[in-house]
Design brief:
Distance between the termini: 27 Å
Radius of gyration: 22 Å
Number of helices: 13
Strand content: 15-25%
Shape: globular
Number of strands: 18
């Protein structure tokens, strides 16, 4: 026995109607109440900022389940693989907003309901709607933010997280994923991207220092890059805009290292500017094939001679990794750095065919964090780009992917 499609549409209509006026703390109970008309019980789980556990939203009248580990649980498998998981009369559906992974829905089924593809498709569609509603509801208050936190966030981290784009975005022919750690105490690291038209751009930066001053400098750089880009400025002009504003705003000569890159999807030409930053890596067919050492100039905020672009030609299927020095300079208890060679080896190990790009990057970042003895001494940021339609498709649930291909 299945559930008629029209009844699923009624659930989604109810959610959309109720979402206009609900408070953030209402989200879990309204979702469950709408599902109850189908004889289902639904619990919404949000992933924490560390991407280690999934935390349930409360539903009045029943106990709130404990956190589900991302590694080693059915809920975690649905999250990491971006696909539904059926187990013991339940279905775990990945919850994404677009392609940004936010958590999962636990759908408890009444007896006699078949676990078939139609059910999977319906659960994933509802999960996608709830993911969108989580994103639009979060700015209304603190509740959904607090559910995702295991510790208080510093004021500098609050500033930066409000400025950053989603951790994952995909379009038809490429995908982008990013990670920023330590997520509750990040200082001057940041990332940005734009996926417009056929020339996507990517940036990773590291403002000097820690805390609010570093966060303010990173905010200045992000704002300058975006303003110059949206006014039609190229990468060199974006860097110069950041130079000028950092010099104007910070008399203490505060600066930032950065890589700004642009990929022409029609020709494969990648142009980049490296302002005193660690060199990006190119991965092809599973192997690191090139370290991008061109396009050098002084860090942003330090005057110097005019810079020229670095250039390399990429091929479909290639991956580009941008990162900050907090990755390679992470130290273990014996003082040994993670290092560029270990980074290349770890990329080859984790960034493999079959894993969704954000999951590959999550595993890579956790490997770096586990290398360190104690809390990170510096921020670490990773941004990974894969130029392939397959990479983009792996960031959406399989039933939705199949519908897109059929259409």
């Amino acid at each position: 026995m299945g559930i008629e499609q029209s009844r699923w549409w009624a659930v989604m209509d109810d959610l959309l109607d109720r979402s206009h006026l609900w408070r953030p703390e209402d989200l879990g109970s309204v979702v469950d109440g709408a599902a109850a008309r189908l004889g289902l019980a639904i619990t919404v789980y949000l992933v924490d900022h560390e991407q280690r556990t999934l935390r349930a939203l409360a539903v009045p009248g029943r106990p709130t389940p404990g956190p589900q580990p991302v590694d080693g649980s059915p809920a975690g498998r649905a999250f990491t693989q971006v696909e539904s998981v059926a187990e013991d009369g339940r279905r775990w559906a990945p919850m994404v907003n677009g392609t940004d992974r936010l958590g999962v829905l636990e759908v408890r089924l009444p007896a006699g309901i078949h676990q078939d593809e139609r059910l999977a498709r319906a659960c994933e569609t509802v999960a996608g709607l709830v993911g969108h509603l989580v994103t639009t509801t979060s700015p209304r208050g603190d509740h959904l933010h607090l559910v995702r936190r295991s510790t208080p966030m510093t004021s500098g981290a609050e500033l930066l997280w409000k400025l950053l784009p989603p951790l994952t975005v995909s379009v038809a022919d490429f995908a982008v994923a990013a990670v920023l750690e330590p997520c509750y105490d990040v200082g001057g690291d940041a990332f940005d991207y734009t996926v417009d038209a056929r020339r996507p751009q990517f940036a990773v930066l590291d403002a000097t220092g820690r805390g609010m001053r570093a966060g303010l400098a990173a905010a200045v750089v992000l704002s300058c890059i975006r303003a110059a880009r949206r006014a039609g400025g190229d990468l060199l002009e974006q860097a110069r805009a950041a130079d000028e504003e950092l010099l104007r705003q910070f008399p203490d000569a505060r600066f930032a290292t950065a890589v700004l890159a642009e990929l022409d999807l029609d020709t494969g030409l990648l142009r980049y500017v490296n302002a005193g930053h660690p060199p990006p890596l190119v991965q092809r067919a599973g192997k690191i094939v090139e370290t991008l050492t061109g396009g050098r100039r002084r860090p942003l905020g330090i005057e110097g001679p005019a810079a020229a672009y670095g250039e390399v030609t990429l091929s479909p299927g290639d991956r580009l990794l941008l990162y900050t020095d907090g990755v390679t300079e992470a130290r273990d208890s014996a003082g040994r750095q993670f290092g560029a060679e270990r980074l290349a080896d770890t990329v080859e190990e984790h960034v493999t065919e079959g894993l969704p790009l954000p999951e590959a990057l999550r595993r890579l970042s956790h490997t770096v964090l586990e290398h360190q003895a104690g809390p990170p001494a510096d921020d670490l940021t990773l941004l990974l780009v894969e130029w392939s339609a397959a990479a983009a498709e792996r960031t959406v649930p399989p039933t939705i992917r199949a519908d897109d291909q059929a259409g």
